[in-house]
Structures are given as structure tokens and as C-alpha cells.
Amino acid sequence: MYEVCVSAQFEAAHRLEGNFGPATRMHGHTYRLEAIVTGERLQPDGTLFDISQLQAAVQAVVADLHYRDLGTVEGLRDINTTAEHVAYYCWRRIAAALSGAGLRTLTVRIWENPQVYAAYSETLVSSEST
């Protein structure tokens, strides 16, 4: 299985609902987003996928989240903006941009700091199409 990863950073604020101690107050993170795609076959040019296309998909998401209150972002509004929910939100956005690319899986990791991340991973294509 081949794997390609693109990463980017964004600054955003949020507050958590529930038993999260001081994180229930508005606070910010320098988030790191990693988008990792896998696939079984290389293209004739020797690449799994055009990295510039993956970078464009990641940058589109990052541009919409940069310097935002995550609780005001369409798709994150009305949910607890945990790193897990942010990872799923980013996964949906990036997966839509990769439709039909013949990739096996997409994993999105959202790092809240250098020691902590949450991720969402799902198959992009059915086993019948590979």
C-alpha cells in the first residue's frame, strides 16, 4: 500500500461543552491538519496521486478555518468542536475533492498541540472498484 501525506496549519478558537475543565472557556490552538491518502497502484508517472491536488484540497479547508471561532463555522456549528469532530469535518471536505481519484483511504489527523491528535479515517472506494 502506498501512502502520501500533506500537512498544513491553521489558528482557530473554540470552547468545549461538558466536563473539560478550563477548555470550556474560549481558547485557541495552532492546529496541524494532516491528510493521508493510501492506494495500491501508482499512476504511469510513478506517483500515487498528484500532491498539488491534495495540497489544494487541504488548503481550501484550512482557509475556511484559519482565524475562526470553530463554533461559528457551518458544519461545526451546533456540535462540540472536539478534535474528533474537527477531523471528521475536514475529512468530509477533503474526501469530496478526491472523489473518483482511485485512492483507497483518507485519514485526517487534527493535532491540537505537538503531543495530541485525533483522527478520522475511512475507505474512499469500494473493494469492487480496485
Which residue ranges are poorly predicted, with pLDDT under 50 across at least 5 consecutive positions? none
Assign a percent range to the helix content.
10-25%
The best one-word shape is: elongated
Number of helices: 2
Our measurement of the CA-to-CA distance between the termini, rounded to an integer number of angstroms, reads 12 Å
Strand order of the largest sheet: 3-1-2-4-5
What is the tally of beta strands?
A: 5
SSE string, helix = H, strand = E?
EEHEHEE
**What is the residue-averaged pLDDT?**
94
Percent of residues in β-strands:
25-35%
Structure in words:
With 130 residues, this protein is an alpha+beta fold. Helix content is 23%, strand content 35%. It has 2 helices and 5 strands. The protein has a 5-stranded mixed beta sheet. A hairpin with a 2-residue loop joins strand 4 (105-113) and strand 5. Helix 1 (51-65) crosses helix 2. It is elongated and about 50 Å long. It starts with a strand and ends in a 7-residue tail after the last strand. The relative contact order is 0.21. The model has no long low-confidence stretch (mean pLDDT 94).
